[in-house]
Amino acid sequence: MSMKRKKEQKPGVLPESVRASFSDLQRELGIHFENPTLLYQAFTHSSYVNEHRKRNYTDNERLEFLGDAVLELSVSHYLFKSYPEMSEGELTKLRAAVVCEPSLVLFANELSFGRYVLLGKGEELTGGRARPALLADAFESFVGALYLDQGFDSVVRFLERVLFPKVEIGAFSHVMDYKSQLQELIQQKNQGTLSYEIAEEKGPAHNRTFITQVSLDGEVLGTGEGRSKKEAEQQAAMVAIRKLQGNPED
What is the rounded distance in angstroms from the CA atom of residue 106 to the CA atom of residue 101? Predict the structure, then answer.
């Protein structure tokens, strides 16, 4: 069965003030788009298109579809190379945490993407600019636009600045049971007894940060920090695993 291709129409031209704001975004990101129309489209919400039907704008939904796939491949490739000790199940679980909506919203907010999304008046008035799904979509759409404009390597370089470092510092360690992995590693070598101890507590009661050390027969193997005791212990265990495997943190 043949599928008819929809004839592409020339996209409408955005106002000069809007295009100028995207020039600012490119300077902030250190990325220059060869085809800036792709960048504009990445931040164009369907509500903006609906309110400007005569302008022939294109929303970011197709770029979001592409960006989702490119992002998943990029993260999968990075995790596969960086964590050779992880099983398929562990890699899948970690990838899911990295590319889930709350994580994408975090990345989008850190880059102030919400400032640049083009919204219809109704969506703007109902707080759409801060809506998690909208911000996550914008991040995926940007990845899709960058891929089309400059290729996979440029996407990887972008993620090396904004996403991969967070994995490295254990921002997603809460989804991984590093404590069990460490225990198994110690048992395999019959090396002794592990113990976890809170070394320090920082911040007010409603926003406490815990610093925990994991020790093997009194020798500190790793130190972790987290918003809960469990998270701090998991991060400490992750550091200890890297140390025992000869891959200490930089």
Answer: 9
